[in-house]
Automatic annotation (TrEMBL):
Bilayer-spanning residue ranges: none
InterPro entries: ArsR-like_HTH (IPR011991), WH-like_DNA-bd_sf (IPR036388), WH_DNA-bd_sf (IPR036390)
Recorded superkingdom: Archaea
UniProt-listed CDD domains: HTH_ARSR
Name of the protein in its database record: Winged helix-turn-helix domain-containing protein
Length: 103
């Protein structure tokens, strides 16, 4: 279910509260989005930066990819050094989570 919210420019923007709720219901997914808001990273780097286990981070990345929040930035067949980044939707979600202090 999407609702409307005014952004800085005064225009209405669709917000997918189901996705926002999904992200904030897991501290692992929240940590991934927060870390990737700073720039692309590997699962190992995200785990290190957020002081989480890499297995939890990898699972969170998979789930966030399924909801178009993060994207794999290297070829799918690459098994080492997989770099992830936020999608436009992920950036939008993080901005709302941060601005609304849903952390």
């Amino acid at each position: 279910m999407a609702s409307k919210q005014e952004n800085e420019a005064g225009t209405n923007e669709e917000i997918n509260w189901n996705v926002i709720s999904y992200v904030i219901s897991s501290h692992y997914r929240l940590a991934v989005l927060e870390r990737l808001s700073e720039g692309p990273a590997t699962p190992t780097r995200i785990a290190s930066d957020t002081e989480q286990h890499v297995a939890h981070i990898s699972r969170a990345l998979q789930r966030l990819r399924e909801r178009d929040q993060v994207d794999l930035l290297v070829p799918e067949d690459r098994t080492k050094g997989r770099v992830y980044g936020l999608t436009d939707e992920g950036e939008r979600s993080w901005k709302i989570i941060d601005e609304e202090e849903l952390l």
